[in-house]
Amino acid sequence: MATKRSGVRKGRIIVDTGQAGVRxxxxxxxxxxxxxxxxxxxWISAAEGSTNLGTVKGSNLLDAVQKHGVAQRERAxxxxxxxxxxxxxxxxxxxxKRFDTGSKVSLVGLQExxxxxxxxxxxxxxxxxxGRFNPRNIPxxxxxxxxxxxxxxxxxxxxxxxxxxxxxxKMEIVNPGGDYSAVNKEWYSESMNTAKPPLWQAMYGDGSxxxxxxxxxxxxxxxRKADAVYDLIRKNLKIGAGTDPVVLDGAGTGVxxxxxxxxxxxxxxxxxxxxxxxxxxxxxxxxGNLKWRLxxxxxxxxxxxxxxxxxxxxxxxALAKINLTLPEGMEVTEGYVxxxxxxxxxLIYKAGDERGSYVRLKNQNKLLEVIQPExxxxxxxxxxxxxxxxxxxxxxx
Length: 397
Hints:
alpha/beta, 3 domains, 7-stranded mixed β-sheet, 14 helices
C-alpha cells in the first residue's frame, strides 16, 4: 500500500524494461497523478456538456475530439507506432486513473505523451506535416452572396466553420424551417491558423474564445502536464535490488566503472586491503588470484547513486552494452548493480595499478593475479609482454 506522509502519498511505479534481469522502478508522489486525473475528469465533463457546435446532427465536443486526428502514423516514421488521434490522447490520459503503488508502465509508454505533445504542438502551429489537422484549418467553401434560388455567389476559401450569415440566408431559401443559425464570427476565418471553432477551443484553446467549450484548460495543456508527470519517472529511474542486482558485463564496463565515485572508493579499499594483507586478505585466493565472486557480491549489495552527469552517462552506456537502450531523456539516478568476472578484474586492476600494487591480468582478463614484491618479474620478462598486460591493453578489451 502507498503511504501517506505530510500530505504526500508516495508510491512505487514499476518500469517494464522488456529486458530479463533488469528490474527498474521509480518512487514518485502519487498526488501528481491524482491531481492530473482530476483535471482530466473535469475536461471530459466540460467537453461532454459542450453541445453548441453549430452542426446539424446533435453531438458534443467529447465526441468530436474522439473522432479527430490521424488514423495511423506511417510506420517508417514511427519509433513506437502511436496513433495520432483525439481518442488515443484520451485513452492514454485514462491510464492515470489506474496509477497506484505497483502500477506498471513500459519504456515505450513513458515516451507516448512526449510524442503526442510534439504532434499536438505541430498541429497547433498549423505547419509541417500535420498542420492541416488543426481544427482552425478545416476547409470549407464560403459564399459572398446568394441568389433568389439559394445558389451561392462568389465562392471563396473559408476555414474553421461554415455557418456564416450568408450561409444562413442560403439555407432559409433551400431548407426553410431548419436551424442553420450563423455562429460566432470568431469560429471562422478566410485565413489559416486564425479561426477559433469549438474543436480548437477544446483541444488547443488559449482562453481568448470560450463560448463553445465550457472547460478552463484545453487538452494540449493537460497533455503537456501529463508529459511532465511522466518526467518524474524518466528522470528518477532506479534499477536492481540488493538481492537481485543488475549485472553489467559489457566490454570495457569495468574500466569505465572506476570513473564512478562509489565504485572507485570501493575498488581502492579492496586494493588497499590486498596490499596490507598480502598473505591473508579475504580478497585473495590461496593461489594468489582475486576472489572476484566476493567482490561481485559486495558491489551488488551497495546502493550506488549516479549523481553527476558523467556517472549517469556511464549507467546509460553500461545498460546499452547489455542490450537495454534507454530512451532519450531517461536517466538512472541510483540502483543496485554489479559486474561480470572480467569487469571485476578490470576494476580492481585499475585500482591496484593506480596504487602501485603488484597486480596483473591473466587469461584474457578472466583472472587477476596479486604478485608479491619478491615474486615480481624482472624487467626483461615484463618487456616481453608475456607475463603482464599494459593498462592500454586493458582499455582495448
